[in-house]
Amino acid sequence: MAPPSMLPRKEILGLLSSMGVDLPRKTKLPDTELDKRLSKALDSAQYLTRVIPTPPLDPTSYPSWFRDKSTKPVLEGIRRHNIAEATQFDASQMRGIDNPFPLYSNAFMDLRQTLMAIANACDNGMAPLILQDKGESSGICMRVLDVRQFDDQTPILIVVFQHDLKDSLSRGSFDWISSYLSGGAGRAMVNVTATVQEQQLLLRILNQNKKRLISSYKPKRASTESSFTLSFLLPVGPLGMQDMAKYNTNNGCSICGEPAKQKCSRCGAVRYCDAVCQKEDWKSHRPLCNGWKDAKWQTLTFVLADDARPERYVFRWNKYDNVQHNDIQKLMDRIKDKKEGDQGPPPNTHGTTPFIIKLQVSSSKAMGPAHTLFAADPKNDGADFLIYDQRRTIEVAVVRASSDTAAFDSVTEVVQAKGERGLKAFFWAIRTGEWTMDVCLDRLPEWQKW
């Protein structure tokens, strides 16, 4: 039986989706497993293991964020974004749009903006905050007691908080609010509009983090805050590629994620746990199934894109790399120092479900990702090709010299015959192993705009 504090199943799936974790629409994963996945995803969004590899956290072991005048504002330290988001911001600003991510349409994005409002309150005299939705049905009273510095990119906000619903305002919250409103002090309070959904995410983080504080830590708090809960907040940002793969993984039935025991007998491309799930999926699967019936699939063995040309130093980043954590600089340093090492296979974010790939043959005349990776000497034209999906969660290469040449040539022939300028085309693919995928040669998807 689910704990009474657990959110309804539909809400958990919605919150996971706001973070980019899109599980099968009718997944049969237990409620407790979904709840656990949300908790772990929120830990990953805080990059928790960077700050607390071995809990508990003792805030007194870190210096004050405000220890000298040269320290950046807390607001600047709390921001987190990846390369993809930075690109969207730049493109929007060129079009005169301040924020490409509208408020109140994505709970996770809203949470990150609310954290910036909390950080801004720290920079303006540590003002207390009330976070509530527009209908004032749910609210969180909060005050930041202290801000510590893990490093110059990462503030640790020590907070006390209390959550109340409209019809059950606690005495503690009432006294706390009254203490600030009396004598005109209410001017110092900050009101933040926060949807019920983003409050749920924030409360989940606060309740998870409160257990990670060392028990001996007893910061000074106001008398009206005796009933408030002590916790801490870290910067929250988008999930990285590895996390996206981990929390989106569905290696079993295409519908529920349970272990798959059978394939669709017509196309053989989609797996199910039983006939019930297969029947449930038939309406959406039928168009693809009709196209894949008797289709010709080719197995390809790939390598990481950076390993396709070992004689060259290749610098390539992923759009999910976090800007503030120096991931890009670390990648450059590793390549420069020839310390690539064994990076292991790329994560499988698609499980056994078919997905669309873009395949681009290396050419000195090509433009786009394959151009930046492969274009050099025209003698190498057609020696390899690049494969990636829309999210760039997989970005690999197939090298003719170290592959099954017949398999390599069968794919490039399709690209040359049906692709754009004979250089690139879209295919259906299925991951069949850590370093292999099957590509459908004679049932190409519609042309994609990415």
From TrEMBL:
Keywords: Metal-binding, Zinc, Zinc-finger
PROSITE patterns from the UniProt entry: ZF_MYND_1, ZF_MYND_2
Record flagged with keyword Iron: no
Gene3D superfamilies: 6.10.140.2220
Domain MYND-type: residue ranges: 253-289
InterPro entries: Znf_MYND (IPR002893)
Gene Ontology MF terms in the entry: zinc ion binding
Pfam families reported in the protein's UniProt record: zf-MYND
Domain of life according to the entry: Eukaryota
Protein name listed in UniProt: MYND-type domain-containing protein
Originating organism: Mycena venus
